[in-house]
Amino acid sequence: MLAADGQLLASGGGDGTVRMWEAGSRQLLASLQGHTGVVRSVALSADGQLVVSGGYDGTVRLWEASTGTCRPSAATSAWTSRASPA
Predict the structure, then answer these.
(1) Where do the structural domains in the chain lie, given as residue ranges?
(2) Who's near 18: CB < 8 A, 6+ residues apart?
(3) pLDDT at position 51
């Protein structure tokens, strides 16, 4: 996922890590560890300050991009069961 300004890139990995990259130089800025399974999706806030990641471990995590701090996360099992077709 590329930030709106085109300078920050976030990716999710099979090892449960979210990685933050400087898009122009392709330099790794940070590795955010917290998921216990594959990171399935990532998104960046419009200002590039927050990263959201979702994983096969059933959690959604909210990260502060500048510090790598993970805010309290939420389990998604209740959400996915509600979203299932009847």
Answers:
(1) 8-83
(2) 10, 11, 12, 31, 32, 33, 34, 35, 39, 42, 51, 53, 61, 63
(3) 94
